[in-house]
Amino acid sequence: MPDSPRASAPRLPSLTGLRFAAALLVFGVHAYSFIPVGGAAHQLGHLLLDPGDLGVSFFFVLSGFVLTWAARGPGPAPGRGLGRFWAGRVLRIYPAYVVALGLAVASKYIGDLVDPVGNRVNQVNGHNLSTSLFLVQAWFPDDVTYLGINPVAWSLSCEIAFYAAFPLLYLLLRRLAGRALAISAVALVALGLLMPAFAHAFVDPAYQRWFVYILPATRAIEFALGIVLALLVRSGAWRGPGLPVASALFAANYLIVNLLPHQVRDTSAVLATTALLIPAAATADLAGARSVWRHPVLIRLGDASYAFFLVHLTILTTGMIILGRSHDYPAWQAVPLALAFLVLSYAVAFPLHRYVELPAMRLLRRRQPRRAIPAQRAPQPSEVGVG
């Protein structure tokens, strides 16, 4: 696909708002998992919150989309070498990640003091510390390693692998024309849906969940799909429903997820509707169409969603170890408790975003040559996507 070099492309603020929604889904499933409730509240939580793991799939597609949207010219890092591109990605995710890792280690020791027998949420040892620091934990098939010290961090292990592969994937996929891109998008969705069946047929049952849900090579399907979708939108070849219809389809899809087989439910259950929603939000921004995801509050929450993602489970687990999980909480207690953890997580996330994440990203930018600032610019990878 010919790609004329352009200094920038319009911002896509709706994607930042959608980051908050995806992070909220992930928070929801963890709140449902760690705040015990019974009766009708448990059943409602199973319907609305239990599929929240799918927010990670949304993040992976979004990450590929945004990196591609921000790329201009013949390569993924115009005006910069690949070394600078990769350094930028490391500065994007690693400083805040290390701070969150330290909080998770502290959480473990707090938990040991409060409940030395029952505190088994995360394990701190030399192996887990080294795999976590180097962000390679997702390549190990045992859950003690890939869940490690901060259990949500396995997805960052995937992201680092995606960043390493992005220049090659981008250079290969950008050669495709509109029809070939559309076929590729459909093929990638189908491939994602087939992965659980492949694992069932060819992977040891003990490792099937790791292969389907954790392994970076498998989850790269979603990242590659994001690249293809961005190329379709950028080339003007995207044909899909508008944002209201795409949002309704995603919501309906989400509500029937629990009817699907377990491995499909946790990974590819909303892949097709995610592939409709992200381009729909992008094209709504390009056309100036109405989008609730552009609301300033949602954008503010979306900006801090990476920091929120890093710390929310640590706060949830530490809080519930202190409060105790020996009994079911009635709904009138569980809901305010979950909301309190949500607010507390953002109370930690906002300073982490402002004082660690943003200064780290500015570090590389200050060393870049000054260039004319365009009237509009592409959304930077720091603004949307998981990491």
TrEMBL record:
Keyword annotations of the record? Membrane, Transmembrane, Transmembrane helix
| GO CC term, one of those recorded | membrane
Membrane-spanning parts: 12-34, 54-71, 91-110, 152-173, 180-198, 210-233, 240-257, 269-293, 305-323, 335-356
Supply one GO molecular-function term.
acyltransferase activity, transferring groups other than amino-acyl groups
Which stretches make up the Acyltransferase domain?
Answer: 14-352
Q: Organism's domain of life?
A: Bacteria
Which GO terms fall under biological process for this protein? polysaccharide biosynthetic process
List the InterPro entries.
Acyl_transf_3_dom (IPR002656), Acyltransferase_3 (IPR050879)
* Name of this protein: Peptidoglycan/LPS O-acetylase OafA/YrhL
Which organism is the protein's source? Asanoa ferruginea
Q: What is the lineage of its organism?
A: Bacteria, Bacillati, Actinomycetota, Actinomycetes, Micromonosporales
